[in-house]
Automatic annotation (TrEMBL), chain A:
This is Peptide/nickel transport system permease protein. The keyword Glycosyltransferase does not apply. One of its GO terms (biological process) is transmembrane transport. It is found in: Cell membrane. Residues 95-296 form the ABC transmembrane type-1 domain. InterPro entries: BPD_transp_1_N, MetI-like, MetI-like_sf. The lineage of its organism: Bacteria, Bacillati, Actinomycetota, Actinomycetes, Micromonosporales.
Automatic annotation (TrEMBL), chain B:
Belongs to the bacterial solute-binding protein 5 family. GO terms for cellular component: ATP-binding cassette (ABC) transporter complex; cell envelope; periplasmic space. Keywords: Signal, Transport. Its main location: other. The keyword Transferase does not apply. This is Peptide/nickel transport system substrate-binding protein.
Amino acid sequence: MLRYALRRLAISVLVLFGAATVVFFAMRAVSGDPATAVLGPDADQAAVEALRREYGLDAPLPIQYVQFLRRAVTLDFGESFRLHDAATNLVFTHLSATAALALTAFVIALVLGFALGTLAATRPHGVVDRVVSVLSMLTQSLPTFWVGIMLILVFSRFLHLLPSSGAASPAAMIMPAVTLALPLLSVVLRLVRSGLLDVLHEDYVVTARAKGLSETRVVGWHAMRNMLIPVVTVAGLEFGSLLGGAVIVETVFAWPGVGRLMTDAIAARDYSVVQACVITVAVIFIVINLIVDLLYVRLDPRVRESV
Amino acid sequence: MRPPTTRIGALALAGVLGLTACSFGTDDRAGSGGDGATTLRVANPTPVVSLNPFAANSADQPTLTVVQEVFETLVVRDDGRIAPKLAESWTNPDPLTWQFVLRSDVTFADGTPMTSADAKASLQALIDGKGPLAGLWATVDEIRTPDERTLTIHTKSQLGTVLSNLTLLWIAPAAKVADSAFFDAPYGTGPFKVSSFTAGQAVSLVRNEKYRGEQPTLAGISYRYIPEVSGRVTALANNEIDVTWGLPPDQLTGLRGNGDLTVTSFPTYANYYIWFNSSRKPFTDARVRQAMWHAVDFAKISKSLFDQAGAPATGPLPAAIFGSASQNPYAYDPAKARQLLTEAGYPNGFSTTMMWSSGCCTNGNSFADAMISDWAKVGIVVKPQELERATWLDKLLKLDWDSTMTTGSTVTGDADFTLARLYLSTAKRNGYANPELDRILLAARAELDQDKRAALYAQAGKIVWDDAVGIFPLDLNGNVVLRKGVEGFTPTPNDLPDFAGVSLR
C-alpha cells in the first residue's frame, strides 16, 4: 500500500512538472507582448523595455524557464503585470470563491443524481424514469453559458427571486452552482440508474430479499455498495471538469473566482497569473485523482488485495 | 407496494429543491451617513485594474472614471473651454514658462493642506511613471515651486497643450505619489475617497468629509464589474444596480421601453476609424485609399447598424474636440471608386485584409461584414481578421497589417492628443509620412495662442481626411442607463460618467 502511494506520488510530481512546462511555453508561443498589453499602444518604447526588464522578460527563454521552475517550488509565481499583486495571493483569494462554487455544485449533482437515479431505477420505464431520462439528456447537451443566461432570465429578470450576478449574498451562489452542477448531475444520474438496474438482478440481491431484508436495506446498502465504484471514479474525475466549467459560469455570473481570473489573465498576457492558476488547478486535479484511487482501494476488495 | 427507496429519493430531492427555491434578499445599499443618504450602485462595463493615475493605466477609461471622484486637477475642460479648478489663475511670463497660482483653501482628505509641492510631485510622478500620458510632457525640463501657492512649469520648447494636458494631471499628496500601497485606497482633494478596492472586481467610495465644497448627497459610490452585457442589463432591470453605461445599441432599444429606466445618449470624444497601412501596397497610393472610402455606402450602414449609437463623422476628430473642423464629405460613388482604382493601376481591384481586435468596437463584426460586401462590389476582396486584443496590438505596432478597424477616444479633448500621437511620421502608427502634416502638427503644439492652434488643427485634419489616411465613418455616442430615481446626472463628452452631483430619490 505504501509503495503504491509512493509510486502514485512520484507520477504526480512528473505530471505537475509537465503541466508547468506546457503552460510556460504555451503562453510564450502565443503572439502578444505582456508589457505592450499592459502599457497599451501609446507607451514609449523605453517604458515598454523597462517594464520587460522589471518582470525579467528580457532574459533568454531557457533562463526564464529555470527561474520560473525554481521559484514555483517555493510557490512564488511572480507579480501580476495587470493587477500589481503577487500571483500566488491573487490565486488564493480567488480560489475560495471557486472552491465554494464547485463544492456546492458537486454536492447538488451528487445528491440530486443519486436521488433521481434511484427513483428512476426502482421503477424502470415508469413516468419518473422517462421524465428523468429526457431531463438528463437535456442538461448534458445544453451549453453551460446558455443555461446560465436562461436561468438569469427566468429567476432574476422575470421572477425577481435571485440576484443575477456577483457574490454579495448566499443567494447569489444558487444559480451559478446549479448551472455548473447540471452536466455532472446527468452523468451521475445515469450511472446510478444503470448501475442499480444491473445490480438489482444479481443473485445476491435476490438472496438478500429472500432473507427478508427491507427494500430500503437491499437497495440502499447491498445494491448501492456495488454500483458505487464507477460512480466514484466518474464523479471524482468530473470534479476536475467542474473547475473547467467554472471558467464559463464565472464569466456569465460575474463570480469572482479563479476561472475568471484566468480568462482575464490570458487575454492580458499576464504570464505569472496564468501560470499560477494552471498549476493550482493541476494540483487540485492530481490530488482528486489520488483520492479517487485510494477510495477505490477502500471500496473494492479486489483492488485492495492487488496493491 | 410502493418501494421505500422511492421515498428516500423523493425526500432528498425535496430537500435540495427546497434549498434552491429559498431566496435570501439582501440590501447592500444602506448608506453610512446618518442623514439617510444612500450609496449609488454602479456596474462598470470594463474592469478597474488600478487606481494609480500616474502609471500604466493613467489613460484608461475605467481607472479615470473612479479617479475623477477622488482626485482633482488644476484646470478642467468645461463646455470645451479651460476653466480653473485647483489653480485660480495662470500666466505665461515667457513663451517657455507657465505659472499657476493655486487655491489656498484646499486640503486632502487626511486634513493636510494642498500646496504647490503636491502639484509638482504629481506631475513628476506622471512623467516618471512612463505611462501613456507621459509623452504629453516630454518637453518639460523644470518644475519649480517658488512658494506654497505658485507652481512653475518650464519647457524646452513651446508647449501650447499645457492646459489641455493638465486636465488629466490628478493632484495627490506629495508624500504618497511614489508609494504603491497608497493606491490601494487612495484619497485626494475630491468629494469622495476610496474605502475599499479589489483590482479587477470592485471599488467602494465614501464621502470625503474634509471636502471644501458642498458635500455630495450620496453617502458613497460602489462600482462593480459585470463582464457580460446580459448580466448588466438584468442587474439594472432587477434593481440590483442603479446605473451602467457603454451598452450595445441592440440592448438600448429594449431598455428605452422600460418605464423604470432612463436611457441617455450623448456625443463623445470617441470615433470609429479604419486605417490603411500607407507603407504597404496598394495603400501607398492615396487614390486607392480614397477609392475604398467612395466604395462604401456609410449612410445606409450607419442607419441600420448605429441608429442612435453615433452620428456620421464630419472630420477625423469628433466635433466636440478642441481643434476639430468639418471637412468635405466623401460621397458613396462606386463608379468613382472604380475610376480611382483604374487610375492607380488596379482596374480589376485587388485582394487585401482588414484586422480588428475582438470586442474592440460597437457592432464591429456586422460593420466589417457590411463594408467588406460593398468593397467586393468594386472588385476589392477584403479578408476579415478578427484577432485577440494582445495579438492585434502586436501586429498593429509592428505595422504588420493591410488595414485595421478600431475605435479611439481623444481623452484630453484636445486635437493634439490624437493627431500628433497618431499621424506624425515619427509615430509610425499607420505608415503615413507627410512632412507638411508634420510641420503643421508641430507648429500647432508650439502655438500658445489657442485660436491659432485650433486653426492649425483644422488644416492638419484636412490633410488626414483628404489623403484618406483612414476612413472616418462615425462619431460615437455614449450612453448611460439610469434607474428612475437617480437624479442630477449630466453626461460629459469624455465618456467618464461622473456621479458626484447625483442624488437618489
